[in-house]
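Write out the 3D structure for:
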Amino acid sequence: MAPLRIGYVPEHYLTPLHLAQKHYNLNAELVPFPSGTGHMITSLRSGSLDLAIGLTEGWIAGLGNAIRAAPSSESASARHHREGYRLVGGWVQSPLRWAVSVGLERDDLRLVSDLKAGDRVGVSRLGSGSHVMSAVLAQRLGLEGQGDREAFEPIILNNIAGLKEGVSRRDADFFMWEHYTTSSSWVEGAERRVKRIGEIETPWPSWLVVASSLETSPVGPSVEGEKAVKEVLAVLQKGVDHFREPGNREEVILMILDLKYSREDAEAWLEQTKYVPQVEVIQPDTIKKTLAVLEIAGVLRGAEVQELSSRYVPTN
């Protein structure tokens, strides 16, 4: 079989993926997506990826949006093609720390509580984690949109570089991105353009593995496809186990340093982060928590929550 195409966000959370390829012969082309989960959803639906590892809230919101847009009667084949992917595995057990950053000159924004309805949030793409979590933040702040408008107006700025530039130019008022990926931007110096005003954590495990639901994919919804998925997840498990071994800590840190993180941040992140015990298992509680919060935040509606619950949350 030709190498599978696996999409990933080039961040420290994907270190076990690289370890699986380096040490355990993962037969895959690793395709980086700096713009995040939303971009990977588009690529899965176009048939450009076979599997991907991304943010829990992005994957679930993406499926919910597809369910909402579904015609009243649709074949399974048509549904698989339109949704583009299915949830197949766990990845990171820990929550994600979403830092809230604004332009350095924004003296009016010192705390998260200074944000108000109608402010513009920079996002990588619509439906991405950075977009979905802005709705969760609005809900926590008690902010509501008007009519069909969201509490925070999303401004598409593509990636972390675009987000930092956007708030510096005031194209957006703030953006949300993973804490350690953003932390170097807050360091005092001539290049500093943004500052941190707070952060929130996801109330669910932060990363999941998905596989294409297109019938043309080697991991599509078929007996052969399910077998291929299990084989990939087994190799990914070896990468996670390698990551966890205390004797491999320095190797892991050096790989994180290659991504331009400081050693201090790498050490702190390692202390805070736990991967799932079994990659091939998605804990039902992960799905239940995510669906509950995204419904409260207005990201998902009741029908979508019910459908996704029926797929991924056992009733017994």
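The chain is about 40% helix and 20% strand.
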